[in-house]
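[job 0412] stage=fold_complex status=start
inputs:
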Amino acid sequence: DSGVTQTPKHLITATGQRVTLRCSPRSGDLSVYWYQQSLDQGLQFLIQYYNGEERAKGNILERFSAQQFPDLHSELNLSSLELGDSALYFCASSARDRGTYEQYFGPGTRLTVT
Amino acid sequence: AQSVTQPDIHITVSEGASLELRCNYSYGATPYLFWYVQSPGQGLQLLLKYFSGDTLVQGIKGFEAEFKRSQSSFNLRKPSVHWSDAAEYFCAASNQGGKLIFGQGTELSVKP
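[job 0412] stage=fold_complex status=done
writing structure:
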């Protein structure tokens, strides 16, 4: 158990819909990262937050957005969903501010768009 | 562009045999390096990491990895593989703890 939690575990929704994925980092970790894992693209970095502020952006579509709240949990919002958005979405956290740079991953949310 | 390459998509080894999974990176400067393991339907578990210092690093579950700057490599090894090691293995790199760039993954199968 990494200490990072993600909900829900599975999500099935239809094209055009909007969903929200939730992540709680390890206790005390200020940095949260979101990744997408798909068969054709592999593991891709989406976005990073640090203590509520966006720090880095990767291959994140404009239909996707994220935020980190004062209690440090983070949400990834996916809208106008397309079939190609079906993937496993991971959240990770790190204690980068305390000088450790490894990222610990949650169990993921499997999104299926039908 | 920064990249991580795992040349082997799939490897099969016999139980008890030794294992080496290859990883090469292309970065402007030496990145921080990691190996993660993913069992089917599971998240990513950190096996080991390299930041600096000793080029041979020990990890969990009996794994080790050797950093070779001259070859831009960070290969994962295990002297004796167990059936429970069957999984997908990812090499990853980052610049001082920023975003991780992953290799394509190597799927390990273990023959009885």
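[job 0412] summary: The longest strand of chain B covers residues 87-94.
[job 0412] exit 0
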